[in-house]
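Encode chain A's predicted structure.
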Amino acid sequence: MKTIRISGVPEHFNYPLRLLEGQQPLLKEGIQLVWKEESRGSGQLLQDLKNGDTDLALLLTESFLKDCTSGGQNKMLGYHVLSPLIWGIHQSPTALQSPATDEKRNFLVSRMGSGSHLMALALASREGWGPDSLTFQIVDNLDGAVAAYARGEQGYFLWEKYTTSPAVVQGALIRSGEIPSPWPCFVWVASPQALDTWEKTLFMVRDAVYALVAALLEQPDLVVLIAKEYQLSPDLVKEWLSQTTWCTQAALPPGSLEEVFEQLRVLGIVQQPLRPEEVMLQENL
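Encoded structure for chain A:
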């Protein structure tokens, strides 16, 4: 039995991957699919791809494309989520100032190059803060940010707003605002080693998830299922689903990657955009 390892964050966007692992659609071909959840986000997932610790990853679009412009050799197989990610802007429960007036501008991030880091640059651009005025503190994940605030540390922490909702309700952090990513939020990404070994099979895995998602969206109890799986209130899940578009087909919207690269360039996240064929396999172009 051969194994394909798939990794992503332990968030509701990836509920279909939990189901995929249970269904094991490629067992007849002698292939087992293993789903691994990584709480430290896209920065760590990129490291796992580089180290050969995973074959496929569901990455934040900005983290993947930034890595590509820094010499990364991973390739995109398609989108996983077409809608923006709604990032909550969080602070310590003891913070008194709003993002618009606070001069400290320290950010708690999972790691450099992660979405929490790159979206901090997007927030700074929106607020007119120069990049030289920003400082960054690595905290690994949501639990790390909560622990930092409990120690009395200050700073902004950007993380998906529905994932942080239980911590906000508990008073472990406060949400002082929101910022949506101005691009589709998650992409399928494969390592060069995995593509050498599994290229056609990796597309089969992606397409199996697309089919699974299409079936899920027809289920009348989807809100209840996700709420139970991720310990979220049904009302929050219903709101999240109304803002979320999972991808169900391989074809990209025309000009999609060019538009994302231009937005990343304007925000100062990338300096030199790449051509779509440099970051994505030809099947989808």
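The chain has a mean pLDDT of 93.
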